Amino acid sequence: MEGIISYGAHIPVYRLDRKILNEVWERAGKGEKAVANYDEDSMTMGVAAARECLKGMKKDTIDALYFASTTPPFKEKQSASIVAAALDLRGEILTADFANSLRSGTIALKCALDGVKAGTARKVLVVASDCRLAAPNSADDSVFGDGAAAFLVGKEEVAVEMVGDYFTTSEFIDVWRLEHDKYTRTWEDRFIREQGYMPHLKKSILSLLKIYNLTVKDLVKVAFYAPNEGVHRAMARALGLDLKTQVQDPLFNRLGNIGAAFAPILLIGAIEEANPGDKVLLANYGDGADAHLLRVTHDIEGIRDRRGLKRNLESKLMLGNYGKYIKFKNLMEMEQTPDFRPRTSLPLLWRDRQWVYRFHGHTCKKCGKIQFPLQQFCMYCQAGREFLEEINLSDKKGTLFTFSIDERSPVIDPPNVLAAVSLEGGGRFFSQMTDRDTANLTIGMPIELTFRRIHDALGVHNYFWKCLPARS
Amino acid sequence: MRENIKDKAAIVGMGCTKFGERWDMGIDDLIVEAVNEALEDAQVGINDIQAIWLGTWQGSQPTEGSIPTGIVASSALQTQNIPVTRLENACASGIEAARGATLGIASKAYDLVLAIGVEKLKDVGFGGLGVLYPGRGEVVYGAFSTAPGRYAMAATAYFQKYGFSPEEGKRMLAEIDVKSHYYGARNPKAHLRTEITVEQALNAPTIAWPLGLYDCCGVTDGASAAILCPSKEAKQYRDDYVNIKAFGLAASPGWGKERDDYDFTWWDATEAAARQAYEEAGIKNPRKELDMVECHDCFSIAELIATESMLLCEPGKYREEFTEKRAYYHDGEMPLNISGGLKSFGHPIGASGCREIYEIYKQIQGKAEEPSRQIKNVKLGLSHNQGGHPGRFICGVCILGAP
Predict the structure, then answer these.
(1) Which end of chain B is more exposed for a tag (fewer CB within 10 A), N or C?
(2) B113 and A CB contact within 8 Å
(3) CA of B11, closest CA in chain A: separation in Å?
């Protein structure tokens, strides 16, 4: 049966302790939420989740990539195409963005499943990612978190069968952003709960169970979306679920509501701890609702090494203060330093796309040395281009050879850590280091690579790779 | 058939502005101040000059994309349609101007020429040099890198390679800073003229760890100028002229820090430029034969690694030579940066190469302004000037000597 072959998640390393928000706004939030670093957006987080999902997977049978988000970095310009390049996928595939709805992730999952069932795609990669912004001091300011989830959908070696689903649509309006809105807008929470969330989600779940002649007692885990913790609990009770055993922890106090990626990442949380044979239910809400019946297979054992929800949650750095949150989320106009006028050149980035996006280096067929970035001549033996064979280096692990901590660099979150990274098997990457704790940098420490937004020079997002201390 | 340039060109006059934050002076004022001193020193007039080489990185950076040309010099000096070549090799632009002028004389194309190095850095509205980019993919590769950030990587690597703890390493660099300021304080034209202590250096704000404030050179306005003629004719101008013995210039392939075998603590282009110059000058044992060295210490770590890379010190032994043998003081075995160096004298990018030559010229003549800074019996000196950053250097070396 068709279903999920692999999964991957990305939760940004930074967490904001809600005490910091409480101090600034005199509120009473509990726990913490995940906050994207200043160089992350929904696209880069999606790339990170997808790389985890594709770990050890063949890429040449992926025939489509769907990117789902309510916060794609470009309003016009596809995100999926850049995600595909960063993943070093083939050019001859279908890419599509699914946007605007909090259900875009599960809608994309359904489309992927349909494509695989129809035989028009062998495998489809689905990436859901969001970093929504609520107005400072709004209720959602404290609730919203950032994160991404990815699934590889196909027919063979399926770890989680997608047994069936039930979709509804609805013109109900509860949360929205107008064309130029930076922050979400919302109607009264009681209206949303009583007329929107509760009846819509309940209907999808119960209709699906009815079709398959099941009751909630037959489900080992239920992973479902809710706008906040109170509403989530209300739904669990309304469905008659055992709160302790059946409900996938919604993690409002550790992660926050991560929008279009929320239900998908909760599904990852459910399946990464599930046993073969377990029935799992996934349900999502927004512009209607959908519910999905899934069954875990023995192939789940083969993908237990994925960095799913649990490992992502464990690896974290705390944001030190609200000032950092302001900078990461661009909440305030900051002083412009006259010395930094970032530049970009789209022709230059296009010419160098093989290493800027795909992180290709080359190996010299004459002297055997691996090098990055791509060159006209071998750095070591000066052999010409005809001797240089392009190879992907983005999945290489590395070690820190040397570094500096530049306090004067006009990055959004100084200091700028400059790193020389020795890649396993050869190659050296001169790089900015991100997601780092500057008090814990040591030569020789294990390093990974990550695709990030470098700057917004000339009004366009410019992406490239950085390094970071390896996450556990 | 190529000929050696040794002893073909002589410096017969030099000038150097007061280095510093010259809020009162534009780039043309700086050029005039330095050139007037040089003309007076050589006892010639501007109309006697047949050609000019001008070294500057970005001139005065008046507007974005405004590239300085030779007119920066001709308009300042009101020369009337003579050749002016503007040269740019980043921080090595100053020595390149002197090299161009020397080749002009050695080729017998001219009888009397002028080399100028100048930079007006303080008209831009910020401290430091701003952000530098490497060559390829420059918009994203190495974005937000600064000069201190890049040199600091070499310091981290040096500490690691030679077994210094960060504290020991920083202390070693602080001792270099103290020396620079000791001599800068004794040099009237220097930018930073305050002596400091090791503790002050260690407790100063971090610029790019492990480099602190005093590990970094001043951001300085200034100009320096040299008048050259064929050595055979130098006596017409003065008895204590100084001969050019050699130039070396090495542009690295630029992909050093990307190589697995590059360790940041040995600078190939620096070694190559020095070897070219030693060969041209016929120097077999530079450490013994050179009486003084002015090296491009834009950062304390640069003085250390450049000295080792120019074969003036065994690799990893700088500290021993410096703190135990006291070899690099004015009365030591190999006086090093007795001007105060770039760190204390200041570093107006395009001016520094010429300024180093000015220091050696004055020391050979026995005319260091402050007697406590005068090195005894200088016959042969080396000026080292380099642009770029570890792994991507363009390095110039000039050797000067008494006739």
Answers:
(1) N
(2) no
(3) 38
Closest-CA residue of chain B to A426 = B260
The predicted structure's pLDDT at residue B125: 78
pLDDT reported for residue B135: 47
ipTM of the complex: 0.95
Residue that is written with structure tokens 């002083």 in the block: A335
**Among A183-192, B52-61, B93-102, which stretch is predicted with the lowest mean pLDDT?**
B52-61
Q: Regarding the domain delimited by B9-123+219-231, which CATH topology (the fold level of the hierarchy) does it fall under?
A: Peroxisomal Thiolase; Chain A, domain 1 (3.40.47)
Interface check A373 vs B, CB under 8 A: yes
Whether the pLDDT of residue B399 is over 60: the answer is: yes
Sign of the four-CA dihedral B286, B292, B293, B299: positive
- In Å, how far is B253's CA from the nearest CA of chain A? 8
- B205 in contact with chain A, both atoms CB, cutoff 8 A: yes
Span B116-121, average pLDDT? 96
Q: Is A430 on the interface with B (CB under 8 A)?
A: yes
User: How confident is the model over B31-56, as pLDDT tens digits?
Assistant: 999 999 999 999 999 999 999 999 99
pLDDT at B131: 59
Partner-chain contact A462 B140, CB within 8 Å = yes
Q: Which of residues 450-469 of A touch B (CB under 8 A)?
A: 454-455, 457, 462-464
Nearest CA to B214 out of B157, B275, B150, B171 is that of B171
The three state secondary structure string of B210-221 is: CEEHHHECCCCE
**Length in residues, chain B:** 403
The full set of domains in chain A, from first to last, is 3-328 (3.40.47.10), 346-359+394-469 (2.40.50)
Count helices and strands (H / E) in chain A: 13, 22
Contacts of B130 in chain A (CB under 8 A): 339-340
